[in-house]
Batch of 2 targets.
Target 1
Amino acid sequence: MNWKWLIRRLGFMLMVLAVAVILNFLIPRLMPGSAKQAYAGKLPEAVQVKIIARFGLDKSIWEQFVLYIQNTLKGDLGMSFSNHPNSVTYMIGNALPWTLFLLLTATIITVPLGYVFGVIAGWRAGSKTDTGIQIGSLSLLATPLFWIAMVLLYVFSAQLGWFPLRGAETAYSGYTGLKWVGDVLWHAVLPVLALMTLFGAYEMIMRNTMVTTLRENYIITAEAKGASENRVKYKHAARNALLPLITSVGIRFATIVGGSVFVENIFSYPGIGSLIFDAVISYDFPLLQGAFLIFSIVTVVVVFLLDLVYLRLDPRIRY
Amino acid sequence: MPILTVDDLRTHYFTEAGPVKAVDGVSFTLDKGESIGIAGESGCGKTTLAMSLMRLIKGGAVVGGKIHLGDISLLDMSINEFRKIRWERISLVSQAAMGALNPVYTVGSQIVEAIQLHWDMSKSEAWERTAHLLTLVKVDPVRGRSYPHELSGGMKQRIMIAMALACDPEIIIADEMTTALDVVTQAQVLKLLIDLQKRLDLSLIYISHELSVLGQACDKMIIMYAGKIVEMGPTAKIFGAPKHPYTQKLLGSLMDIHSDCVIPDSIPGKPPDLLNPPKGCRFWPRCTVGQVTCETQEPLLIEVEPGHYMACNCSDDKI
Amino acid sequence: MENEQYFEVDHLTKFFPVKKRGQFFGKPIYVHAVDDVQFTVRKGKTYGVVGESGCGKTTLARMIMHLEKPTSGRMLFKGQDITLFNGKQMKALRRQMQMVFQDPFGSLNPVRTIRNIVAEPVRVHHIFQNRQDEKIKVQEMLETVGLSSSDEMLEKRPGQLSGGERQRVGIASALILGAEFIVADEPVSMLDASIRADIIALMMKLKEEKNLTYFFITHEFGMARAICDRIAVMYAGKMVEVADAASIVDHPLHPYTQLLIDAIPPLIPDPNWGKNISEGEVPYFTVPPPGCRYHPRCSRADELCKSEIPELVDYRDGHFAACHHV
Amino acid sequence: MKKRLVFSFCSIVLVLSMILGPLACGEPVDTTTYRLTAAVTDLHESSNPFLASGRGDIRIMSRIYEPLVVGSGGAAIPRLAESWSYDDSTMSWTFNLVQDAEWSDGEPLTAADVKYTLDTQYAGDYSGGGDSKEFVDTVTVVDDNTVKITVTEYASAFLDFLNSMYIVPKHIWEDVADIDTEANLAPVGSGPWLWDEYVPQSHVAFKKNPNYWGGTVNIDEMVLEIYGSQELALLALKTGQVDMVPTVELYSYIPQLLESTDVKVGVDRAANFYNFLFVDHREEPNNLPAFRQAVSMAINRQDIIDFALFTYGSIPRMVPLVPEAIASEDVDWPGLGMTDEARIDEANAMLDADSDFSDFVEGETRTYKGDPLNIEMTIVNRPADVQQAEIIRENMAEIGINVSLKLIGFGPMMGMMFGGGWDDWTWSTAGHGAGGSTLDGLAQEFGADPYNVWYDAPSLGWGEDGDGGGTTAARALQADLRQSRREDDPATLATLIEQIQVDFAAELPIIPLSQGNTIYAYRLDTFTGWAPQEEMDGQGSSGHLLGTINILALEPIAQ
């Protein structure tokens, strides 16, 4: 464990979070109109008064900041306009687990797939296999996520009826235990498949770094040592080519967070993506703000976890 | 009985413009305990020659000739069979400074890998042997647990040597081994290699563009130009009485720290394009003693003195 | 003119801050990349700096070119203190000082044409009003460095040139503004020996023709001996020996200089070569050892070397060495 | 190989989920539980009656709570009030509550609850409760089952406004500390359903109220599943994943739905969105009913609906059309079902019959009393409106009327239409949403008080006899209208309203182009007892189809 590096990354992560929190504080106050409008504008008047008091919207900016930090730490992100009387925290608390489940499942399945196909394609760059895989990846990359989601839904749910048309679980089913798990997985198959279009990006990254890695001298050394093709491919080349992939997973995670807005909306999946979509069309600013804050936190945490993986994989990280 | 016989070896790279004849009819032999230095400008085919011996040509192929290791024809066996020969009988020391060691594994484990690939040895036995090998190259065995980036260039080069010795090979090919090392380190590593070669009675093929380094390390010298051997003979002869005009020019271009000659001569022009090499003597366009016949008449490698070969049409006039 | 104090460096020091492992707060420690170096380059001469990688010679060159800010010390060019020159002043100064880089493969932008690369400095300085004049100048420069000035050549890109040709392009680009002081950082170390001599010969020819002054950095003692008037040997950020080329090679005073010379494989193979080469490497240290920095590797080292830093002392007609045991 | 392990693991999870999922979900938990599932696309679902104002909320309220009456266009269906009376001024209303009504927790429902609800609603100015609170002056408890409400102004539409005034139990809500933030996740109501589970973005689930005072509910559970889009909701209905879609908004999908014999699509003809051709009736020949009727006949409404609104325009939330597919049985407009040619011929014949108009000559403009019929039509400069106007222009050319278009912005248009700038237009088109019935909607455009507009008809230039009472037709209309408001017998009321609309249409300086109706769809193979079309008319299907009115008749079909 390289503690120094880790602490630096942790510090960096906290800084990013601080920036996200501060932006979240500033944006409603910099918007045209007033912060009162952004926080409480569409709430009933009686509630507006309470929100104004709770966030100190009639006080100085510093007092507001202190209150904002206190409230944020307490998990109080305000009241949702469109879902009043539900609080933003309540809405997000309901939605977040589903989104995390979806995004992480998609990532956990896609990254190894991209890895394996990238290795296969990169190993024999220019071959027919490579060309085939590249065409597949590029098509996936070039196809809009929402379109793929819609096709999947139409074909597998509406036409074939293999999967449900909506939701994260059978509504009001009362399922428990394994049955519930099965139900949730059954509902997640199509959204996860749609999010797996990111496979294309991972595969391309893996393939390209694989091609570069294969030019490295240590590959020649490994081959000269008499290592078998698979050993050279996986133990030497792919192991090194994996590093940029890990980095890109972090970067791409932000992309699939965006993609989840489409996918969740199309599959009526009760996650943050649907929440954001609804918040946008109903101008529910507090909810939107809360959702973005949560997404920044999730992204930062995921990137940090990936950093930990990177730390384990790359012994060169010293500083 | 020479341990290695190379007969009329031809290696071509395939480009869209046509085959690049990187090695074009090279023959030589290597005796047990003998060290041969192969010298020439970049692009003369010396590295391709080494890679051909290891059957590691990428983007090209050995298109003709024979390589015999003792009685076995290396080019006729399947690649899987040849993998067993690699490293166990012929190993390769390449430029450690240019990434010949895999950055994500400890150097010790890379040596262990080489041992275990060929010898049926337990991990702990292999580590013991690794420690022994490291001692042999005057590296503290503790360093086996280090990653390449934690070691200096000289140390990495020593470890490459140790790795090359892993399976007690008969032949070691050293490709530009000391290039990019500092002069003192280069001297130290070179000394070590010479010492080991003598002590372990190794057969060595040393490839370098630095003639003076080869002069120190090798019994025999091969001078290559544009894919062909132009002169071959005992080191003392090559340095003391070079016969081929190219060899003479090459030696003349070296900087001698103790000479008063301010700037050495250079060789005008540049090596030919191996896609379409000149018909006759390949050096003819740059040669100052060449005759008209050289343009069309290809010189043969002939023995001008016992053990001293040369390929020049004008040799009789010059001597 | 010959003895003019053309370029002077006075107590020049560069420390790079480095934090210790696990250190998050507090003061960093400093790597002494270049430590209290002083020398004088004379007009029309070639001043060579020799040393192993990590000895600080490249940092020194970068400081001279204002690519790195010195921690302390002064630099004087033609008697003018240029240490604290700002960007505008440096831009003007670059018409007189230019740099030739080590890596002809990396220092030229691969997507630009030769014409654009060579013309870049004159464009930056808005020398020519029209493209035709500029083209003529570029062609002239290409001819000066021994390259074809054909239109075909002008439109080539670095990838289509050989290493030697690329380095010539680098030189043309450095000289196009009429610079007279050239800082060359290992200009030929990436080239084949046969081409190397060519480039060196070109540089020497240009030096004569244009009365250039070179600050030449190399790790090859042989090269320095061949072309430099004066040679400084650097070890771990300090100059350990400074003398005229012949003097330093033929009669080295410092044990490190001796080691560097001994380490060069002789042109005629010599079975006795290498006997004097000791084991040991340039250590990577953040805090230099007390006393003489070379003492951990030195066979002559004694208690004095461990405690006291040797000064550069003139032992013989301008032959300086920093060693307690000359 | 570690990576291979990870990969294999993930593939196994994926494959398992594909297999396990359907297996695990293959059968419902309890086969004897009857569940009605509806697909909705509305956003927010709340069960706090004081705050419920959105369509989704109303849909939920109408299942848990009940109003005194459900009123619509002067008609009223008794709910918690079994009968009512009012004085001559219509300023004082007395409601007699049903006997033995109970809250779902078993407490009796009394007049005190009504008073509490109205008082609280008025005092708190909450977003729920509809418009009635604006009128309510005092609420007096006469006895446990009688409550008297006085209103602040003449408001003959008071019954209409009571629709969303859901009566809440006093004994529960008195203890609520803050009504504004009360989520009310375990509501005690008087409706047939009890709210049981709410998962935001996913669904709302109800259990039947075993104590329902109005009768026995035959369905055990009802789930409103929230779908991301109309397409999905309709697909779910088509594939049998839900039993009904209370509001069909996707016009283009209806023909597909109708392909299935198991699906029934119905129309609630209580239009709440209109698109009109306004005609300045002060100008000749606009003042001639025959002329307007000919124009009305010539306009191809189906084109307007199909092409203009759905190719170029944005789709309004309430679908302003009756698609041809279901129009034949449910709607009527001039020329519906006729070929284009027949329609134009008839329109031409109507004009040709009047000697003031010159006879129709192909490609020429007719004259009226010698002047060519060049008519300027003012329209909002929006693609959908322009397209619609183009269709009208083409139709008019076919009957010899030359229409030129004048495009203006939405704001100026509305100002002209409703702010009195009549001099600036001859014809004009505009869409407009209205509450309640056709008559109410139109009336609201022409005066502050919808029920006074008829008295003021002459001042609007209506008719010419100018004796202060309006035209005979207008007076007759008004009489019918007054009677309709006091009519308790639904059959008589329906006849009256129909008569009013027929009479009115002939005189109207407005030609309807399209109208918005609520369309609903349900499966016939899961439940029987869906209310017949005529019962649904004007009832706001989204509020009542699954709620208080229809629910008692619904019976699950055992599968």
Target 2
Amino acid sequence: MPTGNLSVTTFVIASIIKIAIVLWVLLTAVAYTVWLERKVVGHIQNRWGPTRVGPFGLLQPLADGLKFIFKEDLTPPYVHKFLYILAPMLALSMSLIAICLIPFGNSVNIAGMNIPLQITDTNIALLIILGITSIAVYGVALAGWSSNSKYSLLGGLRASAQMISYEVALGLSLVGVLILCGTFSLHGIVEAQTGTWFGFIPKWNIFKGQFIAFFIYIMAAYAETNRIPFDLPEAETELVAGYHTEYSSMKFAMFFMAEYSNMVTVACLASILFLGGWTGPVFGPPILHALLPIFWFALRVLFFIFVYIWVRGTLPRFRYDQLMSFAWKFLLPLAIANVMITALVVALRS
Amino acid sequence: MLHLALFLIFGVIAVVGAINLIAQTHPINSALSLVVVMGSLAAEYLLLGAEFLGAIQVIVYAGAIMVLFVFTIMLLNAGAEEQTRGSKVAIIIGIPGMVIGSVAVAWALIRAHTGAEVPVGSLYGSAQGIGHLLFRDFLLPFEITSVLILIAIMGAVVLARRES
Amino acid sequence: MIPSTDYIRLLPELILIVFGLLVMLIEPLLGEHNNRKGLGAIALMGAVLSILASFYQTGYEGAAFFDMIHVDTFSIFFHVLIGLIAAVVILASFEYLNLQQIRYGEYYGLILLSSVGMMLMSSAVELVLIFIALEISSIGTYILAGFRRNAPISIESSMKYFLLGSFATAFFLYGVALMFGATGSTSVYTIATTLAQGATPLAYVGIALMFVGLGFKVASAPFHIWTPDVYEGAPAPVVAFMSTGPKAAAFAVLLRVLFATEAPGWFWLIWASAVLSMTLGNIGALVQNNVKRLLAYSSIAQAGYILVAFAAAKDIGISAVIFYAAAYAAMNVGAFAVASHLANVGEKYVTLDDYAGLGRRAPGLAAVLTIFMLSLIGIPVTGGFLAKFYVFQAAMQSHLTGLVIIGVINSAVAAYYYLRVIVYMYMREPQRDVPVLKMPFALGVSLAACLAATIYLGVLPGRILDYAMASARVLVR
Amino acid sequence: MVPISYYLVLSAILFACGVLGFLIKRNVITIFMSIELMLNAVNLSFVAFASYWQALSGQVFVFFVMVVAAAEAAVGLAIIIAVFRTRQTLNPDRVNLLKL
């Protein structure tokens, strides 16, 4: 049962509170990921990044947000109006739904009630996330098509082809983890990674032989979120801005937010699947017992986001045919080999 | 009660989506209606306890097959369909045939004593359960689907490849 | 663990898969303009080996893979038949592919892999596997139909075949679903035991819907509309393949589904479909000028004759079906092989007028085609005669006088259009200059094989008939 | 509690919609989508009957139907693209080298 040991009312109230907190944290994280990106990339390129608004430019996200809201909301003529409006909404809402399946920590005890730090847990959480990411393709594809512009259409075509192709590798890279953990529940996957070898090597999946899977996942995830070096759909030099060329103001902001919140989701998923989620040393008073797991989790997510930005500051963009052959001729065989080897090892051991 | 309400909500969405699929003239609208139908069918699967299938339905049908359709529509940039008079044979034989067939199926369903109420999720279609069946009893069909997929890939490549 | 005998029971299919993969892997290694005959030779070897493997199965009858397939004399017969059809068609395709500038070696791979589906159809005893096998054979033939890609007519026939075929598959699937609903199982034998306790309306409707799907695959009326168009557009050797192989396999499935499950209420369905197929097929063929279309209508009518045997009593009826399937395969593959040779580059010469005067220009070819036509009419000393004879005999013994009368009248009507082809060949002056190419060796071999089979079945039917009888007994048990 | 027959009726309605779409639509892609709708309707029947008989094999069947649908989609769309290349139209009435 979904309610666990709680009454229905408390469950609903707790869920609403959790949803509010998660949304707030997520949107703040998205805003400050943008800030961080500009800062880090700035430093990599030997400049300062945003400095004017607030100390260290910390209020820059706020200013950006206000700018998006107050800009003229232009709907070009000749677009397919319904789909043109639907597309960004679809993109954003799908990326927000995905986050509600992510567990941020183990359950906490508040006033005698055991509340899991997760909006919802199901037996097939991972599958649902995969389903949501595959629906998210529509946002991009429809944006490209409904704009009725060549650049958008090409960007949309490229993006949907890219996302479908990399989804195969992404899905296969998870199979190894699933074989080791034997569950689709994200909570269960983290549980399966608790403990250490020799007291100091954590039993994370990445150390259980899923090293290659981890890298396949990371590469596929970059492509899924359309980030450099796989940001072909919005390659400015050839396609203006790709599928969102014709979008402005809030609708553009929605795509923007969707992209960054997808980054956060992907980073969360990577931490859960490969790096043991919230596991880590827990000590001190009860309040620390509750907060430390969240801290460890956040640390890992932050690490991934930093790597994202680092890669962006470092690597050039692929060519489109290279991108496709990389997915099909390199990542896919590698992922299949990983699945086969993992399955073989597990089968021989049992 | 909740079960019935959910069934009705998603059932109505599915039927409306199916009708919209027929009523729309632009293929992309039809495709999106079909995605809606598939999504609500996934919800119906969840109501029946087939949670693994529900997820797979979204991933495979809505997320892969229909994306392929949308992709093709975008690629061909096909406009709204023209209203030509189709083959009369299809209408003259097809529609009455369909009506008779529907009546027959409805009659059979009503007579089939399937009015039994089954509790929500009484048959829990977990990934484990399906996996056990798939890799034991249905091992051969499972392996043979690889031939099916191979033949489909080969065919698609041969047919869609441009002449050099 | 799966016992090793299970793999022997799957051996013909496994061999075809391996060779299909081999063709696929070698094809990209060949240069753009290289000849694909080598691939054809590999494919031929695969087909022949799988026929031998089917014979080898004789000592290993029984169920395999958790009761998914059932190897018995019935399935072995169809395995050999399908293997032979594949081998002969591959032989007949060597020249055709060169002539039509088709440089895709996948052609041979597709023939082998779709044969896998057809073979599995004949041995599967589980509706899941039957469905997948049916789809393998169908998808393979959809693609093959569009293989003459530079001709719009070919790709259009592929599209027509694909759309109508998938439509029919959906009906078949719905039938399976209702059958599953009526019995709680998809295994043919479990269904049989459940149905023996009394059938619900669900089972009746399920059978009817499954018949729609299978009726489409065997091109029986009223699900035959696609046949002439698809046969006209598809490459001629492919038509030889898809008018015999999938049809034989679909008849095998129909036999299993109807008789092994003791399904209820199919008699009048089959009866009506048989009458309609014979009549519509023959009437349609009367007015055709295109030889491929003519043969298409003729194959609809032939399906009708086979269905007559379905309606007859079980054992003799089934053996008549099996015998007819073999005879039909021999003469139809032969007829289409001749048509594919005469069609020439771009399939230009396919009308009856192009056949005028063939008796003088290419006496050998004309004689061969004449024999196939006589066999299709049902003239003694040919396989077609005995096949028809057994069908009508079985129907007579089951007191289906009405059906026999309709069938005989139809055969008489049919004689007109088959004879018309012969008349054109021998008694008409050619209207335009139609070049006849030299007979290549491979095609000659395949024609000789068809001819030999047709005559053999007409003169020495004993062994095949005994075998068919034994298969029939296995099926009804 | 919902009787299984409700699910079956829903599935039958969807199937009929698919058949109707196949018969009256004049765009090859939409016709193909109608076929997909029919397959989906059948899947619902399978899941409902699986629930009725308490037999997981019904759900496994749906699994196979999805595989087949995917294979069909790949081939079908390739065929449609090839037809479009030669005829520049998706209207089956204009793809008429073959008379029906």
